[in-house]
Amino acid sequence: MSLYPGPRRGEPEHNFNLMIISYGHSSGPLLVADNPNRVKSLYSVRDVPNPPNLLRKKHTGMSRRLQKEIILSKEGKARLTQILDNTESKMVDMMDEYSRAPTPEAVTEADLYAPKESPRELVVGIMCEEGRHRSVAVAEQLAKLVTKKPRWIVEVQHRDLVGLVESSEEDGDEEDAGTDGSVSPTLGRKSTKVAKQKDKEKKKMLGRKIGSLVDEEL
């Protein structure tokens, strides 16, 4: 028998949502509209040591190498554990509250005058200074480590990585997939130097191909 309540009649199978959002203090606060259906928890990881400058210039928190650098530090491990414990506790509380709420068939006259809607969405905001390294790394790790519960959908967003591309050569592939296997709407940042170098290499290769075609025609 499941420890968690099943969906009620007419409700979707997955009706709880965990949204994990990374963001940077330098770009302003995380704006999440107040909603009786939503619970918010905001955390700062600005006191977690930053990875070496050279690593940060080349990679964002989407890089597994940079994630290890942050999470393996004493401060990073402690903060991730704290956020993980708090998040899982809130998820359980939300499901308990939902199970105690009256079903449509059991609504009383008092409920009609003072309706109470149990929250279905948990927003966890994780902040660092720029929203590109520490907060991104912790958000990605949190999504991987949180205990999968029935009827929960877990999503990750990186507010301050929108439109940027991650260079992840050391990982062997581009880390552009979301935790649930879907393509993330926000990607990591690609080093300008790396991008310029690759453009130069492409131009050189193109020049060689053109040169070989001219030689063949002659």
Question: Which secondary structure elements does this structure contain, and how are they paired or packed?
Answer:
Layout lengths: L15 E9 L13 E7 L8 H6 L5 H8 L2 H27 L8 H5 L7 E8 L5 H12 L6 E7 L33 H26 L1
Parallel strand pairs: 1-3, 1-4, 2-3
Q: Strand order, biggest sheet?
A: 2-3-1-4
Report mean pLDDT, rounded to a whole number: 74
Q: Treating each run of at least 4 consecutive H or I residues as one helix, how many helices?
A: 6
Termini distance?
79 Å
Report strand %: 5-15%
Query: What are the segments in which pLDDT stays under 50 over at least 5 consecutive residues?
Result: 1-5, 111-115, 167-194, 208-218
Overall number of strands = 4
Q: Can you describe what's shown?
A:
The chain has 218 residues and is α/β, with parallel strands linked by helices. Helices cover 39% and strands 14% of the residues. It has a 4-stranded parallel sheet with strand order 2-3-1-4, with helices on one face. Helix 3 packs across helix 5.
Task: Give me a quick take on this structure.
With 218 residues, the protein is an alpha/beta fold.
Task: List its traits.
disordered C terminus, disordered N terminus, 218 residues, 4-stranded parallel β-sheet, single chain, alpha/beta
